[in-house]
């Protein structure tokens, strides 16, 4: 199936970001893609105002998501991204949303909050407590992860054992020493160890690295963007997936049980 990565720098004003998303959705649809993955926290951002994203959070029936739902009505394109949704006084959840034909077909609240490298996402954001659902797209099953989740192999393995063929990772990967190396190593590892496709889409701009990439089930990077805004396409092949899992049957050979979230008991 044909997929697209829409990499851009999130602006301070939600209307500008909505216009960028609608444009990317239109271009992806016109190019024949069935899946478009956008970055993390695309509603509003300002590197000089860390609390802006939560202050500007909107509910699911707010104007930002309403505009994107309307834009998704044409065709069968599935669009996946994350945004902040209010969740109590001066707090929010970082919710990953899947849209198709005007409807929200899946939602996942980010499990692992970015309390690392001198940053503290949990200061303003509440963590999710459920394993993400799988989304059917173009004959493949898609598992949802968000940014910092990639550092926790249990989630990727759980989604794969639940039946995921593709993992998507909307992100806002912050620049820093070795951070681009971490990004590529982790994305490649999660795809290879689970013999699945991984679509990792990063925000670009002054603070974040961009560098969106698609990794195939044998750890080969088949498409990537640089540090500037871009719309990148690739083909995911069911035959490549089946061949990788036949030649490298790590899922069948594993000796450990299926990972379980603490909140599941």
Name some characteristics of this structure.
seven-stranded mixed sheet, alpha/beta, globular, 26% helix, 26% strand, Nitrilase/N-carbamoyl-D-aminoacid amidohydrolase, 265 residues, six-stranded mixed sheet
Provide a concise account of the structure shown.
This protein is an alpha/beta fold and 265 residues long. The chain has seven helices and 13 strands.
State which percent range the strand residues make up. 25-35%
Helical content band: 25-40%
Q: In CATH terms, what is the fold-level topology? A: Nitrilase/N-carbamoyl-D-aminoacid amidohydrolase
| Dominant shape | globular
N- to C-terminal distance: 37 Å
Low-confidence blocks of residues: none
Summing up helix and strand content along with how strands pair, one would put the structural category as: alpha/beta
The largest sheet, given as strand count, sense and whether it forms a barrel, is: 7 strands, mixed
Domains (count): 1
| Integer-rounded radius of gyration | 17 Å
Tally the helices. 7
Just give the CATH class.
Alpha Beta
Total beta-strand segments: 13
Overall mean confidence score, pLDDT: 97
Order of helices and strands: EHEHHEEEEEEHEHEEEEHH
Task: Name the CATH superfamily classification.
Answer: Carbon-nitrogen hydrolase
Which CATH-level-2 architecture? 4-Layer Sandwich
Protein name: Deaminated glutathione amidase
Domain CN hydrolase: 1-238
InterPro entries: C-N_Hydrolase, C-N_Hydrolase_sf, De_GSH_amidase, UPF0012_CS
Family: Belongs to the carbon-nitrogen hydrolase superfamily. NIT1/NIT2 family.
